[in-house]
Structure to design on (184 residues):
């Protein structure tokens, strides 16, 4: 019961404000219809709303400036990180390319070494076969050549050393010659 007059007053105030904001009523009509107290209260409410709106617009402007500053800082930070990342990625790419070229070079060298080793092994096998089987080892399907018999004589070598260590034969003569040349 006690709140009804206040609620009625609030209802009247809000209706008056609604009409005023929609442009249906002017201040003078409000004063005539509701009295100067209601019109004053509505004026105070409008003044408070205007102050609040101006403060909010200041805050919004300041917030926009802060947001711009923060956004610029973020963009600069991201640009710096992106530049560093680009540099690091280039270094990694260069390092991997060097590894790959090193591996390729090693493979080429290994292939060349393998070819040389294979060639040398084949030549060695041919030489061993030639040493074992003679000239027909190079051409195994060729008919054997005539073998010329060789006789070797078993006689003492021209120079030898006896069990006592004295030199015999040509070695003794050369030794004597050297001694005689040294005596002069």
């Amino acid at each position: 019961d006690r709140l009804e007059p206040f609620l009625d007053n609030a209802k009247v105030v809000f209706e008056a404000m609604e009409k005023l904001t929609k442009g249906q009523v002017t201040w003078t009509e409000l004063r005539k219809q509701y009295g100067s107290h209601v019109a004053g209260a509505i004026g105070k409410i409008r003044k408070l709303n205007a102050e609040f709106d101006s403060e909010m617009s200041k805050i919004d402007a300041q917030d926009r400036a802060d947001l711009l500053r923060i956004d610029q800082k973020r963009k600069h930070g991201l640009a710096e990180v992106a530049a560093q990342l680009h540099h690091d990625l280039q270094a990694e790419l260069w390092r991997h390319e060097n590894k790959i070229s090193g591996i390729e070079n090693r493979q080429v060298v290994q292939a060349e070494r393998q070819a040389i080793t294979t060639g040398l092994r084949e030549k060695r096998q041919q030489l061993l076969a030639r040493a074992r089987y003679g000239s027909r080892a190079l051409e195994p399907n060729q008919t054997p050549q005539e073998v010329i018999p060789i006789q070797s004589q078993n006689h003492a070598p021209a120079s030898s050393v006896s069990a006592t260590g004295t030199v015999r034969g040509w070695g003794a003569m050369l030794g004597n010659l050297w001694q005689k040349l040294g005596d002069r």
